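re: that chain from earlier
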Amino acid sequence: VQFVESGGGLVQPGGSLRLSCVASGFTFSTTAMSWYRQAPGKEREWVARINWYGYNTNYADSVKGRFTISRNNGKNTLYLQMNSLNPDDTAVYYCNQASPINAWGQGTQVTVSS
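^ sequence. v structure.
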């Protein structure tokens, strides 16, 4: 199992980013997926979840209304559209199965700063 995250970067407050995660080694199309993040000095936290077909999504209160999770099962790819970013969103972002397995990728760094 492998997860390869990309799309992070440095963005000003109020800006947007779109993260991608390519998954392999399991049947992506029938697996619920989630995004997680870990800020400096904090534990990793759950951000958003999407069911296997993409119709049901859930979000942490801190990102609700600003982030959108989506997926393309044909490309084994998970996405996270992040809008109205603020400094509290600064973290390394990871994708994993909704019931996470011990196969974390390298993550992608998101830094929100002016």
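Residues 7 and 61 are 23 Å apart (CA to CA).
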